[in-house]
Design brief:
The complex is a heterotrimer of chains A (about 270), B (about 325) and C (about 425).
Chain A (H helix, E strand, L loop, with lengths): L1 H30 L3 H4 L14 H9 L2 H32 L5 H12 L3 H15 L5 H9 L3 H10 L4 H9 L4 H30 L2 H6 L8 H8 L7 H36 L3
Helix pairs in contact in A: 1-13, 3-13, 4-7, 4-8, 4-10, 8-10, 8-13, 9-10, 10-13
Chain B lengths: L10 H16 L1 H30 L2 E2 L7 E2 L3 H7 L2 H36 L5 H9 L6 H11 L6 H9 L10 H30 L2 H9 L4 H12 L1 H16 L3 H6 L11 H11 L3 H26 L1 H5 L1
Antiparallel strand pairs in B: 1-2
Chain C lengths: L1 H20 L2 E6 L4 H17 L4 E6 L6 H10 L7 E4 L3 H4 L14 H4 L9 H5 L2 E2 L2 E2 L2 E2 L1 E10 H6 L11 H13 L3 E4 L6 H14 L17 H14 L11 H6 L3 E7 L3 H7 L3 E4 L10 E4 L1 E4 L9 H16 L1 H8 L2 E2 L8 H4 L2 H15 L3 E2 L7 H16 L5 H17 L2
Parallel strand pairs in C: 1-2, 8-9, 11-14
Antiparallel strand pairs in C: 3-12, 4-5, 6-12, 7-9, 7-10, 7-11, 7-13
Helix pairs in contact in C: 2-14, 9-10, 9-17, 17-18
The chains are: A mainly alpha (about 270), B mainly alpha (about 325), C alpha+beta (about 425).
Chain lengths: ~270, ~325, ~425
C-alpha cells in the first residue's frame, strides 16, 4: 500500500508521458533507420542498422542550414516586433482612456480568429507592390500585426494594482514613465511567456510563408519541410529527419526557459479577473 | 522589483517633458491613441485592409485579365445554394465541438497530474517536456506522422489496434471517424501548451486554501469543482481563446491527413476556402466565403464575450 | 568625316560591350521536387555555364501544391517568371495567363527560335494549341505503369519475365498471389482520392469511355461502362480480396507484401531503394485498349507585362530550346519520358539502368499513344474533386457504385451548367 502511494504517481506520470511521446520516438527512430526498414510490415522498432543517411542528405542535398537560419531570423524579427508594438498598444487598451477604445479592442478580437485564407490574396498583391515578397520583413509584418499579443498583454496589464500607477503619477511620471518604470518591470514573466508563444508561432507559420517566400534560399523551415514532402509520394526518412532536426532548437529553448515560461503564465493568468 | 531605477531627469528635458505632459494631461485621449498607434497602423495595413479589400472583391466576378464584373451579392447567393459550403460550415463546428473540449480536457488533466504529483518529485521536467514536445512540431509534421500512424499496414497505431480488435475501423477511411481522428491528432499536438497554462493557474492557488479544505474534510471532487475550477477560471479563459482560434483556423491537418475526405466528410471551411481560391481560382466566391467565415467568427466572439463574462472585464 | 566615323564606331563598341556585359536575367518557376527537380537543376546549371555572361537563369522549384495559383497571382501582380511549366490538361484553364508563342507581342517565337515541331512527340505537341494559338513546348510524358514483385511471382509459380498482359492472365496472377498470403494488386499508388479517381479513369478509358461530351455540357460516365469500371475498382479492394480499402500501395510494395502495383515513373527511386526484386511492365489490357493514365509537362512563357523587351522573350526561348535538346538528362535523372525525339535516342540514356528497367516501357506506351491525358476544362479541378469524392466513398464501401456515379454525374452537371 505504502509502495503504491509512493511510486504509483510516478508510474502514472511516466506511463502517460511515454504514451504521449510514442509518435515522437517513432519519428526519431524512423529518421535514423534505413529506408527498407521504414516500410516494414509489421512495423519494426529496432532498425537493422543505425544510419545517418537521411540527416546527411538533408544537409547535402537541401539548404537545410539556411532554412534554419531563415526561420531563426523571421521568428526573432516577429517576436521583437510584436513586443515593440504590442506592449504600448496593450498598455493603451488597458490603462489609458480614450474615446472608442473598447469598441476598437473588440474589433481587434474578431481578427484573432481569422484564417489566413481570407485575406491572403489581397495581402499578396499588396506585398508585391511594396516589393516585400521574398523578404524577411514581408513574411514577418503580417504576423506582427496579429492581435493575439495585444490581447494577452492587456489581460495582464489591466490587473496591475492601480495604487502602483497612482504613486508613480504623483511622483510626476508621464504615461510613458508608468509603462517603462511600473508596468514593464512587473511584466517580465508575462513577456517571456508571450515571447515563447509568438516565437513558436512564427517558427511554425506555414501558410503565409508559403505564399510570400518563393526563392529556395529564402524559405523558412515549415516551407522547406513542405518542399521535402513530394507531390507523388513521401520520403518518410528524409522528412522525418527534417522534422526531428527542426524541433531540436525549440526543445532546447523550452528546457532552458521552462521555469520562466510557467511563471509567465502564472502571472498572466492571475491578471484576469474571474 | 518594481519602482527601482527611477532617477532624476535633467532640467531641460524635464521642462520639455512637462510641456508635453501638460498637453497630454489636457487631452488624455490623444495620448492613449498615440500608444496604440504603431500597432494599429500595422494592423490596419496588413490585416484590416486586406480583409476590407476581400469584402470588396466578394462583390465581383473577379478576373483582372478579362475585366472584373460587378455582380453584387451573386457570389453569396451561389455560395448559399451550394451544399458543399454548408457541409463545410457544419464540419467546422463539429470539429470545433470535438477538438476544443478534448484539448482543454487533456491539458487540464495533465496539468493536475504534473502539479499534484510533480511537486517534490524528481524528474518531473522529463514528464513535462514529453507532454509539451508535440507543440513544438510544425503542423504538417504532426499531420504526416499521424497519417502514418493511422495507415492500414505500416501504421503503428492501426497495426496494434487491429491485432487486438481485428474489426476495428481504419479511421481515416470512414466518414464518421475521419474528423474525430484529426481531432485526436490536433489534441496531441496542442494539449501540451494548455497544460502549461493550467499549471500556472494551479500554482497560483494559495496552499492555505487547500489546507483548510483538507481540515473541512472536502472530497477530491468537491475540491475540484468548488476550489480549483473557480480559481483557475482566468487560465481557462485564456486557453479557451487560444484553442477556439486554432479550431476555427484548422487547415493543414485536414489537408494532409484526409484532403477533406472521405467524400466531403472532413472538409472544413478553411480548406473549402483554400480550394475555391487556390484550386478553382474563383477569387470572388472565395472572398465571399471568407466574409461569411468572418461573420461567423464575429458572432462567436460576441457570444463568447457575453457568456464568459469577458464583458465585465472590458469595462 | 572619317574621324567622326571612327569615334562613332568606338563609342558604339563600348556601348555594345557595356550593354552585353549585363547578362539577361530570367526566372524559371517549376512545380518539380525531389528527383525531377534535381534533374532540372542539372540542365539549368549546364545552361548557365554555357551562356555565362549572356543569359542567367534562376530556377525556383519545389512548390507543387499551389503552383498554378501562384503562377496566376504572379502574372496578375506583374511579376511573372519568364519561363514556367504547364501540364497539358491545365492549358484551357491557364491560357489567359500564358504567352501564345506563335503570336507573341514580338512575333512568332517558335519560328524565331528555330524550334521544329516535327522533332516532338505528336500527341504532346498537338496538346499545346487552342484555336490556332500555340502555347506549349513539350518537355515530357509521364504516367502510370505496372510494377510487380519478381520474387512473389516466382514463389507462386508465375514467370517473373512475363507480367500479365490480358485480363485473364491478370486475374490468374492475382488469385495465385492472394492464395500465397500476399496483397495481390493495388491499382492506385497510395490510394489518395485523386489516385483512386485516376484508376477508375484507366478502366473506363480502356472500355472506350468518354468522361464528358465534346462540348463539356454533360457528364457521360454514368452508364454501364462507367459502372463496370467502378465496380471493378471497388471489387479489387473488397469482393475480390486483392487488397483492402485505405491501404497504401507504395508502402505495401516497398515492404515486399504486394504482388503488383500501378504507380507512376516517380516510384522508381523508392523501388530501387526498397530492396524489393521488382519488374516493370506497361499497363495490362483489362478492357479493350491498354490505356494508362498520364500527363505531359510542357514549357511555357507566362504572360509578360506590357513592354517586355524582345531580347527577354528570345532569351526565354533559348532556354526552352536548350532544355528540349538536353532532355535526355531529364529522363535519366527525373524519370519522365522526354517528348523531344532526338533526345530519346541519346546513347547515354539508352544505356542507363532506369531506361532499361522501366523507362523504355513507358516510352513505348507514350509512342503508341496509350498515355491518356486527363480532362481539360476551365473547371477541371472542381470537376475532378466532385468525381473523386464519390469514387472514394464507393471504394471505402460507404455508398454503392451506382449511387457514387449518379451523385458524381449530378455534381459535375451542376458545375458545368451552373455558369
Amino acid at each position: 500500500m505504502k509502495w503504491i502511494k509512493r511510486y504509483g504517481p510516478y508510474l502514472v506520470l511516466y506511463g502517460v508521458a511515454f504514451l504521449w511521446i510514442i509518435p515522437i520516438l517513432w519519428m526519431a527512430d524512423t529518421a535514423f533507420k534505413p529506408t527498407r526498414d521504414i516500410f516494414s510490415i509489421p512495423p519494426k522498432w529496432i532498425p537493422s542498422h543505425f544510419t545517418t543517411e537521411h540527416v546527411e542528405r538533408l544537409f547535402a542535398e537541401w539548404p537545410f542550414a539556411r532554412w534554419l537560419l531563415n526561420s531563426l531570423i523571421v521568428a526573432s524579427f516577429v517576436t521583437l516586433g510584436s513586443l515593440v508594438v504590442s506592449v504600448p498598444a496593450a498598455f493603451s487598451f488597458s490603462r489609458l482612456h480614450w474615446k472608442g477604445r473598447d469598441a476598437v479592442f473588440m474589433f481587434l478580437l474578431v481578427f484573432m480568429l481569422l484564417p489566413w485564407q481570407v485575406n491572403i490574396i489581397p495581402l499578396f498583391f499588396m506585398m508585391t507592390k511594396f516589393k516585400f515578397l521574398n523578404t524577411y520583413q514581408g513574411v514577418a509584418l503580417p504576423m506582427i500585426a496579429m492581435p493575439i499579443g495585444v490581447f494577452l498583454l492587456r489581460q495582464f496589464f489591466i490587473n496591475i494594482p492601480r495604487d502602483l500607477e497612482d504613486a508613480a503619477r504623483i511622483d510626476g511620471c508621464s504615461s510613458l514613465g508608468v509603462l517603462l518604470r511600473v508596468i514593464l518591470p512587473l511584466s517580465k514573466p508575462v513577456l517571456a511567456a508571450f515571447s515563447v508563444y509568438i516565437f513558436n508561432y512564427a517558427w511554425n507559420e506555414f501558410f503565409w510563408s508559403m505564399i510570400c517566400l518563393r526563392k529556395p534560399q529564402m524559405v523558412t523551415l515549415p516551407v522547406g519541410l513542405k518542399i521535402l514532402q513530394g507531390a507523388f509520394e513521401i520520403d518518410y526518412g528524409l522528412i522525418l529527419a527534417g522534422a526531428f532536426m527542426a524541433s531540436l532548437p525549440s526543445l532546447m529553448v523550452f528546457l532552458l526557459l521552462r521555469r520562466q515560461i510557467i511563471r509567465g503564465f502564472t502571472l498572466a493568468g492571475s491578471g484576469v479577473k474571474g | 522589483m518594481g519602482l527601482k531605477g527611477r532617477g532624476t531627469i535633467p532640467a531641460p528635458f524635464s521642462k520639455m517633458r512637462n510641456r508635453i505632459g501638460r498637453f497630454f494631461y489636457r487631452h488624455p485621449g490623444v495620448e492613449g491613441f498615440l500608444f496604440a498607434l504603431p500597432y494599429m497602423a500595422l494592423w490596419a495595413v496588413f490585416l484590416a485592409w486586406p480583409v476590407v479589400y476581400g469584402i470588396y472583391i466578394s462583390l465581383f466576378d473577379w478576373d483582372p485579365l478579362r475585366g472584373s464584373k460587378f455582380v453584387g451579392l451573386a457570389n453569396y447567393l451561389e455560395l448559399f445554394r451550394e451544399p458543399r459550403f454548408w457541409n463545410a460550415v457544419v464540419n467546422t463546428f463539429k470539429f470545433a465541438g470535438m477538438t476544443i473540449p478534448l484539448i482543454l480536457g487533456l491539458g487540464f488533466v495533465f496539468a493536475l497530474m504534473v502539479w499534484g504529483w510533480g511537486r517534490k518529485r524528481r524528474g518531473i521536467v522529463v514528464v513535462q517536456a514529453s507532454l509539451f514536445f508535440p507543440y513544438l512540431l510544425n503542423v504538417s509534421i504532426v499531420a504526416i506522422v499521424w497519417k502514418w500512424l493511422l495507415e492500414r499496414d505500416v501504421g503503428l497505431f492501426q497495426h496494434y489496434l487491429n491485432s487486438i480488435f481485428p474489426s476495428a475501423p481504419v479511421f481515416l477511411t470512414e466518414p464518421a471517424w475521419a474528423l474525430p481522428a484529426i481531432a485526436v491528432a490536433t489534441a496531441w499536438w496542442l494539449a501540451g501548451y494548455r497544460m502549461l497554462v493550467f499549471q500556472a493557474g494551479l500554482e497560483e492557488i494559495p496552499v492555505e486554501l487547500f489546507e483548510s479544505a483538507e481540515i473541512d474534510g472536502a472530497r477530491p471532487y468537491h475540491k475540484l469543482v468548488h476550489l480549483i475550477l473557480p480559481l483557475i477560471k482566468p487560465s481557462l479563459l485564456f486557453a479557451l481563446v487560444l484553442t477556439t482560434i486554432s479550431a476555427f483556423r484548422t487547415f493543414g491537418q485536414v489537408l494532409i491527413m484526409t484532403e477533406g475526405g472521405p467524400g466531403w466528410a472532413s472538409e472544413v471551411l478553411a480548406l473549402y476556402l483554400y480550394r475555391v481560391g487556390f484550386d478553382y481560382f474563383d477569387i470572388g466566391k472565395a472572398a465571399a466565403s471568407g466574409v461569411v467565415l468572418l461573420f461567423l467568427i464575429l458572432v462567436i466572439t460576441l457570444l463568447g464575450v457575453r457568456i464568459l463574462g469577458l464583458k465585465s472585464e472590458l469595462q | 568625316m572619317r574621324k567622326s566615323f571612327l569615334w562613332a564606331l568606338v563609342i558604339g563598341l563600348i556601348l555594345g560591350v557595356w550593354a552585353t556585359a549585363e547578362p539577361i536575367k530570367l526566372t524559371f518557376n517549376t512545380l518539380f521536387h525531389e528527383a525531377d527537380a534535381k534533374a532540372m537543376e542539372k540542365i539549368i546549371e549546364m545552361f548557365n555555364e554555357e551562356y555565362k555572361g549572356k543569359i542567367e537563369v534562376e530556377l525556383i522549384q519545389g512548390r507543387w501544391a499551389q503552383y498554378y495559383a501562384e503562377l496566376r497571382l504572379s502574372v496578375l501582380a506583374g511579376t511573372p517568371p519568364q519561363i514556367g511549366i504547364c501540364h497539358t490538361n491545365k492549358l484551357v484553364e491557364m491560357a489567359d495567363y500564358l504567352t501564345p508563342l506563335n503570336a507573341s507581342p514580338v512575333g512568332d517565337l517558335i519560328e524565331m527560335a528555330g524550334i521544329d515541331p516535327a522533332k516532338y512527340v505528336d500527341a504532346a505537341w498537338a496538346a499545346g494549341e487552342i484555336e490556332g494559338r500555340h502555347y506549349l513546348i513539350p518537355l515530357d510524358t509521364h504516367g502510370w505503369g505496372l510494377w510487380y514483385n519478381k520474387d512473389i511471382f516466382a514463389e507462386v509459380g508465375l514467370d517473373p519475365k512475363k507480367p500479365p498482359r490480358t485480363l485473364a492472365e491478370f486475374i490468374d496472377a492475382c488469385e495465385r498471389i492472394k492464395a500465397a498470403g500476399y496483397y495481390a494488386f493495388h491499382p492506385a499508388e497510395d490510394a489518395l482520392p485523386r489516385k483512386l479517381r485516376r484508376a477508375w479513369y484507366v478502366f473506363f478509358w480502356q472500355m472506350g469511355g468518354q468522361l464528358f461530351d465534346e462540348d463539356y455540357i454533360h457528364a457521360t460516365f454514368n452508364n454501364p461502362k462507367g459502372l463496370l469500371a467502378l465496380q471493378f475498382l471497388v471489387d479489387i479492394f473488397n469482393d475480390f480480396g486483392w487488397n483492402e480499402p485505405g491501404s497504401n500501395g507504395y508502402n505495401q510494395f516497398a515492404a515486399g507484401k504486394l504482388g503488383m502495383l500501378v504507380a507512376g515513373n516517380w516510384f522508381y527511386g523508392t523501388a530501387a531503394k526498397s530492396g524489393v526484386n521488382w519488374g516493370y511492365a506497361p499497363m495490362p489490357n483489362f478492357f479493350g485498349t491498354p490505356y494508362t493514365w498520364g500527363n505531359s509537362h510542357q514549357l511555357v512563357i507566362p504572360l509578360q507585362p506590357k513592354g517586355t523587351p524582345r531580347e527577354v522573350y528570345l532569351a526565354a526561348m533559348e532556354v526552352i530550346k536548350f532544355i528540349s535538346e538536353h532532355s535526355y538528362i531529364w529522363t535519366m535523372y527525373g524519370g519522365h519520358i522526354t517528348a523531344y525525339k532526338p533526345a530519346a535516342e541519346n546513347t547515354e540514356l539508352l544505356a542507363s539502368e532506369y531506361w532499361i528497367r522501366s523507362g523504355k516501357w513507358l516510352n513505348e506506351m507514350a509512342q503508341k499513344g496509350l498515355v491518356h491525358y486527363p480532362i481539360n476544362h476551365p473547371k477541371g479541378s472542381e470537376l475532378e474533386h466532385a468525381i473523386q469524392a464519390q469514387i472514394e466513398l464507393a471504394v471505402n464501401g460507404v455508398i454503392s457504385p451506382q449511387e457514387a456515379l449518379a451523385k458524381a454525374e449530378e455534381e459535375c452537371n451542376k458545375i458545368l451548367q451552373g455558369g
